[in-house]
Write a structure and sequence with these properties.
Blueprint lengths: L35 H8 L30
Length: about 70
């Protein structure tokens, strides 16, 4: 049996297969994702989780923050 890519396009990075579809990219957690707050509220995720409950996976890395930047000020 060969590994097949999902025919429906699956994850945004197109790097998944049937076994890894809902896993976040290697070394990434929910805390690294722009959708962290929403997923923690809706699905009960924690920032340390390494899988996504959205299908297809919607992981999008947060932009790097500038040092000393204030939020909303």
């Amino acid at each position: 049996m060969s590994m097949q890519k999902h025919s429906h396009g699956c994850c945004a990075d197109k790097a998944c297969n049937d076994k890894t579809c809902m896993e976040l990219p290697s070394g990434k957690t929910c805390g690294d994702c722009v959708h962290e707050r929403r997923c923690c509220m809706i699905f009960g995720h924690t920032p340390s989780d390494t899988y996504c409950d959205w299908f297809p996976r919607r992981f999008a890395e947060k932009p790097a923050q500038k040092e000393g930047a204030c939020h909303g000020r």
